[in-house]
């Protein structure tokens, strides 16, 4: 194990980001990134400073051997606690995530657009624009809805099966072998402009999705016109495309964070997620039950989808409160 790997290993064992380590050493994050990528070597003063900061000897840092594992407070070698991820495994993980991001995003889009055919057929039949009975229109619309939801479920299930062997990256602490951090940061850096662009466009589309409803009021007033139905369909399309872009970008960005143990996948957040996994299961189970109950009992498929973004925002708020309380108590 070379110095670069030891810096990465010791930083992660302390649950520090590159920015946090850089602040403690009085250097820039770029300097720490270069040390960990083996692009440069810290001077002796920094090596001594790191040995004191990490509680290891300078010999351990400087000698290119594995050496004795640093001991955690309870006396158990920390290497026995963390899963090791090599270069080949990391590349396979990122490639699968890239493919799954598009599949999952498409599945989400299908779910959002699934009631569109039912809405359009129902509106057309109501205003006498369709040569079929109400029962035929509803039957055809529900058939298309179920086919789209079924396709979405198939995408979700197959994507989950493909990535299942990497589930430990979400919950367990990991140690990456030489070069993995550098590779992940390079790919993350290349993806960053795309991430920002897709996230921005997705959010803007979600905000603008309400415009067709306002336009329908301006153009058609309160009269029952098929234009209102078309505008509602436009709302679903805009919101669906916006959510697709957000989901795809977020999944890919999350994959880099999992490998680098940063952001939502830092060691602190992993511990928090493990302690609240039961809460998450109960919460989303109740949300799903509320969605299905509302949709089936009121037949309001054109409005019930709003439960998901509201539930997502509410979950983030509740989880943020729990995290803040835990930090305060800790």
Overview of this protein structure:
The chain has helices at 3-13, 18-25, 29-36, 44-54, 58-62, 87-113, 116-126, 134-163, 168-171, 180-208, 211-220, 226-260, 267-275, 277-298, 301-304, 307-329; strands spanning 83-85, 174-176. 75% of the residues lie in helices and 2% in strands. α14 (277-298) packs antiparallel against α16 (307-329). The chain has 16 helices and two strands. The chain has three domains: 3-81, 434 Repressor (Amino-terminal Domain); 86-262, no CATH class; 276-330. With 330 residues, it is mostly helical. The chain has a two-stranded parallel ribbon with strand order 1-2. The two termini are 34 Å apart. It is elongated, with a radius of gyration of 25 Å.
Residues in helix, %: over 70%
Low-confidence stretches: 68-81
Rg (CA only): 25 Å
Largest beta sheet: strand ordering: 1-2
Q: What sort of overall outline do the alpha carbons produce when their principal axes are compared? A: elongated
Q: Please report the total strand number as a whole number.
A: 2
Structural class: mainly alpha
Q: Kindly, what is the distance between the CA atoms of the first and last residues, rounded to a whole number of angstroms?
A: 34 Å
Tally of separate domains: 3
Main beta-sheet annotation: 2 strands, parallel
> Which range does the strand content fall in?
under 5%
Q: Look at the structure and give the mean pLDDT.
A: 82
Task: Please report the number of helical segments.
Answer: 16
Topology order in helix (H) and strand (E) letters? HHHHHEHHHHEHHHHHHH
């Amino acid at each position: 194990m070379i110095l670069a790997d030891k810096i990465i290993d010791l930083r992660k064992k302390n649950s520090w980001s590159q920015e946090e380590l850089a602040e403690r050493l009085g250097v820039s994050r770029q300097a720490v990134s270069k040390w960990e990528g083996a692009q440069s070597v810290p001077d002796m003063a920094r090596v001594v400073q790191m040995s004191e900061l990490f509680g290891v000897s300078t010999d351990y840092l400087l000698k290119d051997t594995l050496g004795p594992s640093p001991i955690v407070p309870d006396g158990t070698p920390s290497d026995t606690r963390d899963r090791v991820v090599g270069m080949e495994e990391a590349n396979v993980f990122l490639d699968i995530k890239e493919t799954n991001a598009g599949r999952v995003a498409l599945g989400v889009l299908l779910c959002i657009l699934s009631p569109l055919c039912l809405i359009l057929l129902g509106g057309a039949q109501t205003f006498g624009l369709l040569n079929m009975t109400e029962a035929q229109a509803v039957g055809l619309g529900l058939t298309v809805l179920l086919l789209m939801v079924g396709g979405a479920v198939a995408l979700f299930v197959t994507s989950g099966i493909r990535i299942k062997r990497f589930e430990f990256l979400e919950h367990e602490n990991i140690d990456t072998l030489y070069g993995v951090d550098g590779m992940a940061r390079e790919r993350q850096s290349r993806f960053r402009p795309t991430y920002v662009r897709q996230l921005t466009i997705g959010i803007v589309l979600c905000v603008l999705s309400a415009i067709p409803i306002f336009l329908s009021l301006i153009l058609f007033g309160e009269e029952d016109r098929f234009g209102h139905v078309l505008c509602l369909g436009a709302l679903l399309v805009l919101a669906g495309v916006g959510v697709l872009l957000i989901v795809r970008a977020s999944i890919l960005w999350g994959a880099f964070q999992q490998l680098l143990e940063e952001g939502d996948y830092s060691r602190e957040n992993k511990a928090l997620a493990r302690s609240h996994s039961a809460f998450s299961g109960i919460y989303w189970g109740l949300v799903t039950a509320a969605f299905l109950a509302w949709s089936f009992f009121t037949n309001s498929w054109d409005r019930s989808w709003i439960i998901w973004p509201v539930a997502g925002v509410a979950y983030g708020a509740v989880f943020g409160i729990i995290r803040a309380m835990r930090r305060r108590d800790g």
